């Protein structure tokens, strides 16, 4: 029997009904997708990795802040980071740390260094993938929190620079990060010990720092999974004249890098004075996931009570006489071995 058909295979007499059903299905699928996308954007659904990505796509298209195209808080970062620590003289750290903050020291030194990160995803809308270098001038103590103070910050994204200056109060600079793979030495030693990739940071056409970083590690070599909640201080800049305090949650696989990263700092670099000593330790943060909360105003305390460890000194830098400064400079052991003067008897009435 012969049956007339459409070119698309639909029997005659059912074309209108079939088209209506197809249109209804398309409308239903589009409406369901829109509802799921909206729910994932406002955190009403369980945040699986896929739903989180959908929410980010929604936020990137609709919820842009005024700070140069940056997503709203909490700010989420993913990638890899390396943290190398250096001993820094207190006299050197005082040049970069505000006088309102107390420097934690041991034997005339505090703990500084640099933090190098390569973000594969970030809140920056113009360039989510960028590099960041943070120079640490030293540790500051203000009860009940203690953290590192960033003296220089270099980022590879313009929107991240604007956001850091206006919203977080960091001394941001726009830099350029270049990765170079050195040539391997011939022979067996070159195969057993291949050279590390080199990262060079330049700012305004001048080299700031260059370091040899280890290659990425996978599996058990990536390190131990660790979750940390750390406080951070910022502020005392032109856009944020007061002191700010913000918290960040960091999840990563941390391992010890041995030997430490070889670092080359030019004489004219602003980091030369901070990184002049030999590095102490280097940590590798693989599979980094970091959530940063917006900063809040913080009032520094003018007290030295509740110092966490007696051998660490929180050195006061304002409103103290030189006699008291020299007396407290010795530390905990000096206070035990110091000769005590006998009390002066009161005159008889």
From TrEMBL:
InterPro entries in the record: ADC_dom_sf, NDX1-like
Composition bias type Basic and acidic residues, residue spans: 318-327
Transmembrane region(s): 27-45
UniProt keyword annotation of Nucleus present: no
Keywords, alphabetical: Membrane, Transmembrane, Transmembrane helix
Region of interest (Disordered), ranges: 318-349
Superkingdom in the source lineage: Eukaryota
Keyword Nuclease appears in the UniProt entry: no
Protein name: Acetoacetate decarboxylase
Source organism of this protein record: Lotharella oceanica
Upper lineage: Eukaryota, Sar, Rhizaria, Cercozoa, Chlorarachniophyceae
């Amino acid at each position: 029997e012969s049956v007339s058909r459409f070119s698309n295979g639909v029997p005659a007499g059912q074309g209108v009904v079939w088209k209506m059903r197809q249109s209804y299905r398309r409308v239903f699928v589009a409406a369901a997708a829109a509802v799921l996308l909206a729910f994932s954007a406002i955190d009403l659904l369980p945040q699986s990795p896929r739903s989180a990505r959908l929410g980010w796509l929604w936020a990137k298209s609709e919820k842009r802040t005024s700070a140069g195209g940056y997503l709203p808080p909490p700010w989420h970062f993913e990638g890899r980071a390396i943290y190398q620590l250096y001993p820094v003289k207190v006299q050197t750290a005082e040049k970069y740390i505000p006088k309102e903050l107390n420097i934690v020291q041991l034997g005339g030194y505090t703990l500084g260094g640099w933090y190098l990160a390569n973000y594969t995803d970030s809140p920056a809308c113009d360039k989510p993938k960028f590099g960041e270098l943070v120079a640490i001038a030293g540790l500051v103590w203000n009860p009940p929190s203690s953290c590192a103070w960033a003296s220089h910050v270099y980022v590879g994204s313009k929107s991240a620079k604007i956001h850091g200056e206006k919203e977080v109060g960091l001394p941001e600079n726009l830099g350029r990060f270049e990765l170079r793979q050195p040539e391997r030495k011939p022979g067996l030693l070159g195969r057993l010990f291949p050279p590390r990739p080199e990262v060079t940071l330049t700012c305004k056409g001048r080299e700031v720092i260059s370091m040899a970083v280890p290659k990425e590690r996978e599996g058990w070599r990536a390190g131990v999974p660790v979750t940390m909640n750390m406080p951070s201080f910022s502020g005392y800049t032109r856009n944020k004249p007061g002191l700010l305090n913000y918290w960040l949650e960091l999840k990563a696989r941390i391992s010890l890098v041995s030997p430490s990263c070889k670092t080359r700092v030019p004489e004219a670099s602003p980091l030369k004075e901070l990184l002049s000593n030999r590095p102490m330790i280097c940590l590798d943060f693989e599979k980094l996931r970091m959530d940063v909360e917006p900063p809040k105003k913080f009032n520094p305390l003018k007290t030295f009570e509740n110092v966490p460890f007696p051998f660490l000194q929180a050195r006061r830098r304002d409103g103290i006489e030189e006699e008291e400064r020299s007396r407290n400079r010795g530390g905990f052991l000096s206070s035990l071995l110091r000769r005590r003067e006998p009390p002066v008897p009161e005159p008889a009435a």
